[in-house]
């Protein structure tokens, strides 16, 4: 497969932050012409493989499977170049042959689309294109707080939508964007996301959940790379019409589905619109969206307390400070901090009676992997969610 300058720039950006992305992409084009399966044989019998022509003698740690996968090749080249800062291992850099590709790469780099956020419901009705599917489709529900009563509580809000819904037509093929690779987990949730799947992405620490599918085109446990057709969309499960539910969560190998429990979702905007995003740490420490929910939750709790004449402001502030310090020391996510602090604030304002203990129930692997509670029936004519 031959990639364009735009594709190679995107791969170089995805491989890691910092360094000279322009030179990195220009070197790849000079070395392989953008051909992901390129092979060069040297006089000593060694081979140069893939986009960045990684030599199998000098870099035996890079397998053929990695070398001929565009994303893996880019990440290996990023490591070899010490973060896109040292290109001396490449002949085309030492000879200057890469320079003829710099103008085209620079243009592609400058024209990279700006980041787009799909947080909140003000984006409903906007048109969206994505490397995951062909065509332009309408956003039917954004990520974050919503007034739709069928969504469960989350991130300090009464109703929270854990992903982005896009009204793609039934029968639309979903494809893994170039530069990504991972392992597929099948998920069947008839009363929730219907026929669904999760792609546990390599190197990013997150999994992408695709819901309301007609069928999966890959098997459970299958390793996939960029360009692989994954599934066909539909309206299975609890859905009012053809659409795709797109959700991103941190990986959790201790859980059957391989991703975190409901409520650990992170902003899926850049994964959906550009097929990439920042590091997991950047996603989880983002100050937009969920952290605002923490502020709002605490604000609502304090307002209620003061209106009722209860002097607990100092208590709430102390508790919040302790929680924040504890979570920061443990390195836990902003979402976990926001969720637990919001819950504690509400408990301080209005203690809730504890239900009587119940005998533990046996939970099947399928139930454990359920990623979303059952939703209420939607009103006739509502947008697909």
Structural description of this entry:
The chain has 385 residues and is α+β, with helices and mostly antiparallel strands. The protein has 3 domains: 5-110, Lysozyme (Orthogonal Bundle), CATH 1.10.530.10; 121-284, Glucose Permease (Domain IIA); 290-349, no CATH class. It is 31% helix and 19% strand. It has 12 helices and 15 strands. It has helices spanning 5-15, 21-32, 64-67, 70-80, 91-95, 102-110, 269-274, 280-284, 290-307, 313-330, 334-349, 365-368, and strands at residues 39-41, 47-49, 54-55, 127-130, 133-141, 144-145, 160-161, 164-166, 173-175, 181-189, 194-201, 206-216, 223-225, 229-233, 244-250. Strands 4, 5, 8, 9, 10, 11, 12, 13, 14 and 15 form a 10-stranded antiparallel beta sheet that branches. A 3-stranded antiparallel beta sheet has the order 1-2-3. A hairpin with a 5-residue loop joins strand 1 and strand 2. It is elongated.
Roughly what is the average pLDDT, rounded to an integer? Answer: 78
**Backbone CA Rg:** 24 Å
Outline type: elongated
Q: By CATH's scheme, which homologous superfamily of the largest domain applies? A: Glucose Permease (Domain IIA)
Give me the strand/helix succession.
Answer: HHEEEHHHHEEEEEEEEEEEEHHHHHH
**Major sheet:** 10 strands, antiparallel
The N- to C-terminal Cα distance equals: 36 Å
What's the total count of β strands? Answer: 15
Number of helices: 12
Structural class: alpha+beta
Residue share in β-strands: 15-25%
In short:
The chain has 385 residues and is an alpha+beta fold. The chain is built from 12 helices and 15 strands. The chain is 31% helix and 19% strand.
């Amino acid at each position: 497969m031959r990639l364009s300058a735009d594709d190679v720039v995107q791969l170089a950006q995805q491989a890691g932050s910092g360094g000279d992305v322009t030179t990195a992409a220009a070197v790849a084009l000079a070395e392989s012409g953008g051909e992901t399966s390129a092979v060069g044989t040297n006089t000593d019998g060694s081979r140069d493989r893939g986009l960045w022509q990684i030599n199998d003698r000098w870099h035996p740690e890079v397998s053929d499977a990695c070398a001929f996968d565009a994303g893996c090749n880019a990440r290996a080249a990023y490591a070899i170049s010490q973060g896109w800062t040292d290109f001396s291992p490449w002949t085309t850099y030492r000879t200057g042959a890469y320079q003829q590709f710099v103008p085209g790469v620079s243009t592609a780099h400058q024209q990279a689309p700006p980041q787009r956020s799909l947080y909140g419901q003000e984006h409903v009705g906007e048109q969206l294109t994505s490397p995951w599917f062909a065509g332009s489709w309408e956003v039917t529900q954004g990520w974050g707080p919503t007034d739709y009563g069928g969504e469960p509580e989350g991130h300090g809000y009464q109703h929270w939508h854990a992903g982005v819904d896009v009204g793609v037509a039934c029968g639309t093929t979903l494809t893994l964007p170039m530069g990504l690779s991972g392992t597929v987990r099948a998920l069947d949730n008839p009363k929730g996301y219907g026929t669904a799947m999760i792609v546990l992405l390599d190197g990013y620490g997150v999994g992408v959940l695709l819901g309301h599918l007609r069928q999966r085109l890959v098997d459970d446990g299958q390793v996939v790379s960029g360009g692989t057709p994954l599934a066909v969309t539909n309206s299975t499960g609890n859905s009012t019409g053809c659409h795709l539910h797109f959700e991103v969560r941190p990986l959790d190998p201790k859980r059957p589905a391989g991703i975190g429990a409901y409520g650990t979702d992170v902003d899926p905007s850049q994964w959906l619109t550009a097929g990439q995003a920042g590091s997991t740490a950047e996603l989880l420490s983002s100050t937009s969206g969920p952290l605002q929910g923490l502020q709002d939750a605490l604000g609502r709790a304090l307002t209620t307390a003061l209106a009722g004449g209860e002097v607990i402001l100092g208590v709430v502030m102390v508790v919040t400070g302790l929680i924040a310090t504890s979570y920061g020391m443990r390195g836990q996510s902003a979402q976990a901090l926001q969720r637990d602090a919001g819950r504690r604030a509400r408990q301080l304002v209005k203690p809730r009676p504890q239900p009587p203990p119940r005998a533990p129930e046996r939970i099947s692997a399928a139930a454990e992997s359920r990623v979303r509670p059952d939703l209420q029936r939607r009103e006739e004519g509502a947008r697909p969610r």
